[in-house]
């Protein structure tokens, strides 16, 4: 291929998306956010600021349950923001937790903390008048919400693996370092939210560039055999390779992502591609190379095809790999074999090799709130008051009370028991997940978080009546095809189509390395239950010993496996 042909593949010419203009004209993410904050006529943000606040970790939302009623009353929607904190690897101290807990109760309209499946938490329902004090509170306790949304590198995930504590510590430190390394350098966040004076000429973005990335970008650090971070949902993944108990380097996997648009065959979920092994010391160089390639080559004319997965498909693996080597100065070697065998969290107590105890608490859909039945939020706060270790949020929306010494174990356990935090949960429930969806998500098409608990009760009954009550199927619900609930990597995935209606996908595998294919389109709950019932009965009767549901439906020909998603996902 000559240079001209190559360039026409690498850089897409054409009319840029309006989001590119917004970034270009934002003066490094400032826009007129400050003026908007002072505007008392509306509870929301206007013009470009609506998008710009996302770079500062906030989304403007309104409660969709009451939207129609407010319109009827000729009222503006009740605007508020959802704030997403930056928490690489999900680690949070007990002091930080208590401050967040108090804030959620006193300053948000929903009163909850929502653990996300990217190891952090969201606070929904912060009114405009309270936004600045929220950022000041976060700053005081050593946290921020910088770059947790929009076209930047998002919260970095790393395996929650309390057992192998030393390796884990190292990987966690790296997650923090990478997160800092890839942060926007603009001082806009400090100026707008923390009243820090403008420092002239510091707005240089050596890595992200003046118009930042073409689209969101996601990174994981994985310690095999655990794939609890669901690496294939991410743009850039580092798989830790350990020899003689020493971390020697990483296998590099690039180009995962789960979103699609209903009916749009130019969009598809994709698993990440293996690019080879490189030594530990080069991780920042390789990360910088990959992210700057995506910055330069990602499609800025079409946000639906702007993610790394599409860039790789467009330019090809060979060219992408050569460019990584050229930009990083690292020769990628043949990958070192590794195995993945789990995705779920180990709920309950576990002892690490550092002799400390770790208690993983199951939190349904990550929603931490008190109700008349259960004082979940209070219980965790009570633990935070006495716990001398730290908390860790998992990529399965659960929380680990980490680093408990032997003599404190009973104290923590009695609080957990008192507040019902250690109730008996079925394996099926532990391995199921839903995205937020209604009422806060503006993109939701069907219920997810509010749908899953009762739906699971029905699935649990079906499992029991077929004699497989002790087993589980990785089951996930996502309220729209953006795929936040990672249903595309489930053995059974429901993807919201309209209120009460979903596409049913099956055939993903237990460890999250295969995309699930659509089995039935646009069906309601009764139809879903009927299909799943028959499938589970078939699996229970005819599967080999230890054969997982996702593998079974493929072996017996109920569904064809997705082998190369870019080509065969829509077949
Ligand atoms: Fe997500 C947008 C919630 C993980 C793919 N996601 C949204 C928004 C912000 C809606 C919006 O744009 O206005 C949702 C806010 C709902 C609310 O009210 O809280 C939202 N996403 C979530 C969370 C909270 C789901 C959860 O239940 O845990 C997760 C927050 C993660 C975090 O802490 O950073 C979340 N989102 C994901 C994942 C899974 C993952 O990252 O492992 C995906 C699929 C993986 C991927 O990126 O391919 C995901 N979210 C999206 C997309 C589609 C992006 C795309 O490639 O097209 C959108 C829409 C968009 O960006 O345009 C989106
Ligand atoms: Fe909202 Fe859709 Fe994401 Fe669910 S999958 S949180 S409905 S954007």
Brief descriptors of the model:
binds iron/sulfur cluster; 571 residues; 3 domains; five-stranded antiparallel β-sheet
* Assigned CATH architecture of the largest domain: 2-Layer Sandwich
Question: Strands of the biggest beta sheet: in what spatial order?
Answer: 1-2-5-4-13
Q: Count the DSSP helices.
A: 19
- Tell me the overall shape: globular
What is the assigned CATH homologous superfamily of the largest domain? Sulfite Reductase Hemoprotein, domain 1
**Regions with little confidence, pLDDT below 50 for 5+ residues:** none
The small-molecule ligands in this entry are: siroheme, iron/sulfur cluster
Largest sheet: 5 strands, antiparallel
Structural class call reads: alpha+beta
- Mean pLDDT comes to 95
| CATH domain class name of the largest domain | Alpha Beta
Number of structurally distinct domains: 3
Total E-strand runs: 20
Radius of gyration, in Å, reads 23 Å
According to CATH, what is the topology of the largest domain?
Sulfite Reductase Hemoprotein, domain 1
Strand content: 15-25%
Distance between the terminal alpha carbons, to the nearest Å?
31 Å
Helicity range: 25-40%
EC number: 1.8.1.2
Protein name: Sulfite reductase [NADPH] hemoprotein beta-component
Binding site for [4Fe-4S] cluster: 435, 441, 480, 484
Enzyme class: oxidoreductase
């Amino acid at each position: 291929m000559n240079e001209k042909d190559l360039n026409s593949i690498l850089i897409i010419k054409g009319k840029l998306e309006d989001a590119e203009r917004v970034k270009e004209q934002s003066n490094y993410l400032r826009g007129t956010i400050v003026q908007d904050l002072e505007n008392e006529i509306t509870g929301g943000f206007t013009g470009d600021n609506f998008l710009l606040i996302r770079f500062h970790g906030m989304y403007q939302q309104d409660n969709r349950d009451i939207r129609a009623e407010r319109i009827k009353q000729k009222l503006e929607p009740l605007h508020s923001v959802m704030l997403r904190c930056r928490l690489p690897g999900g680690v949070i101290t007990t002091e930080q937790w208590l401050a967040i807990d108090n804030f959620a109760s006193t300053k948000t309209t929903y009163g909850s903390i929502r653990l996300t499946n990217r190891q952090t938490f969201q606070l929904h329902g912060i009114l405009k008048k309270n936004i600045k004090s929220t950022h000041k509170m976060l700053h005081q306790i050593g946290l921020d919400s910088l770059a947790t949304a929009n076209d930047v590198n998002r919260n970095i995930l790393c395996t929650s693996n309390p057992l192998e504590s030393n390796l884990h510590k190292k990987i966690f430190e790296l997650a923090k370092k990478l997160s800092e390394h890839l942060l926007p350098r603009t001082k806009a966040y400090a100026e707008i939210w923390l009243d820090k004076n403008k420092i002239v000429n510091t707005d240089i973005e050596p890595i992200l560039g003046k118009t930042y990335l073409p689209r969101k970008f996601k990174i994981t650090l994985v310690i095999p055999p655990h794939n609890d971070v669901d690496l294939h949902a991410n743009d850039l993944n580092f798989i830790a390779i350990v020899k003689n108990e020493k971390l020697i380097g990483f296998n590099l996997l690039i180009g995962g992502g789960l979103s699609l648009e209903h009916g749009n065959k130019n969009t598809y979920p994709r698993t990440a591609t293996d690019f080879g092994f490189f030594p530990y010391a080069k991780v920042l160089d390789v990360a910088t190379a990959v992210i700057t390639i995506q910055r330069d080559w990602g499609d800025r004319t079409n946000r639906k095809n702007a993610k790394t997965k599409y860039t790789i498909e467009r330019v090809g693996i060979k060219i992408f790999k050569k460019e990584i080597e050229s930009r990083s100065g690292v020769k990628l070697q043949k990958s070192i074999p590794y195995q993945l065998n789990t995705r779920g969290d180990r709920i309950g107590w576990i002892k690490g090799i550092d002799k400390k105890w770790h208690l993983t608490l199951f939190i349904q859909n990550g929603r931490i709130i008190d109700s008349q039945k259960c004082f979940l939020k209070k219980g965790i706060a009570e633990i935070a008051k006495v716990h001398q270790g730290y908390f860790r949020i998992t990529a399965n929306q659960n929380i680990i009370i980490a680093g408990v010494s032997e003599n404190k174990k009973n104290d923590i356990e009695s609080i957990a028991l008192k507040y019902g935090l250690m109730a008996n949960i079925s394996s099926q429930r532990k391995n199921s997940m839903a995205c937020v969806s209604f009422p806060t998500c503006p993109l939701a098409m069907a219920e997810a978080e509010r749908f899953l608990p009762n739906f699971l009760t029905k699935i649990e009954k079906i499992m029991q009546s077929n004699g497989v009550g002790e087993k589980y199927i990785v089951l996930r619900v996502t309220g729209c095809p953006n795929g936040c609930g990672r249903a595309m990597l489930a053995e059974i995935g429901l993807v919201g189509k309209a209120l009460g209606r979903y596409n049913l996908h099956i055939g993903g595998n237990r460890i999250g390395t295969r995309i699930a294919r659509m089995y039935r389109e646009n069906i309601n709950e009764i139809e879903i239950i009927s299909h799943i019932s028959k499938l589970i009965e078939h699996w229970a009767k005819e599967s080999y010993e230890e054969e997982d549901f996702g593998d079974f439906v493929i072996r017996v020909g109920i569904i064809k496996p997705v082998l190369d998603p870019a080509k065969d996902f829509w077949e």
